[in-house]
Amino acid sequence: MVASARARIEEVETEAAIALLGDPGVVIVDIRDPRERARSGQIPGSFHAPRGMLEFWVDPESPYFKPVFGQDKRFLLHCASGWRSALAVATLQDMGFPAAHLKDGFTDWVAKGGPVERAPASDHPDQATALADRKSDSDVR
């Protein structure tokens, strides 16, 4: 499935993607799981759209539509290795939404020296859940 998707979508090499960082006409969309972002960081300024919600957030007829996807910009999706993002871009293309993807994913971005930012500790889902669990435990006492 990934090979079939890659044959019909635009793939952006890592070096070219790094050069696009900060371009106001480009939105980099991170479709990784929140825990992946918490563990390994994120591309500065990237918009997080979890893979499971992407089609709903992109579809202007959906009650879950996110205005970021209504902008007249170029959208570059990425995951860790380029597999999920290839499938996601193929699906978005089928919906009539043009997008491209980071061919070799965030892992290659990091390996090639692309900038990475870490989310503050309070933004890490595992830590937030642990804090909420501790709070609810203390409420019981």
How would you describe this structure in keywords?
5-stranded parallel beta sheet; 7 helices; alpha/beta; 141 residues; disordered C terminus; single chain; Oxidized Rhodanese, domain 1
Walkthrough of the structure:
The chain has seven helices and five strands; from the N terminus they run αβαβαβαβαβαα. With 141 residues, the chain is an alpha/beta fold. The longest helix is centred in the last third of the chain and has 16 residues, at 125-140.
Rounded mean pLDDT is: 89
Provide the succession of SSEs. Answer: HEHEHEHEHEHH
Shape estimate:
globular
- Tell me the total number of β-strands: 5
Q: Strand order of the main beta sheet, please?
A: 1-5-4-2-3
Would you spell out the secondary-structure blueprint of this structure?
Blueprint: H1 2-6, E1 10-12, H2 14-20, E2 26-30, H3 34-40, E3 47-48, H4 54-58, E4 74-78, H5 83-94, E5 100-102, H6 105-111, H7 125-140
Parallel strand pairs: 1-5, 2-3, 2-4, 4-5
Gist of the model:
The chain has helices spanning 2-6, 14-20, 34-40, 54-58, 83-94, 105-111, 125-140; strands spanning 10-12, 26-30, 47-48, 74-78, 100-102.
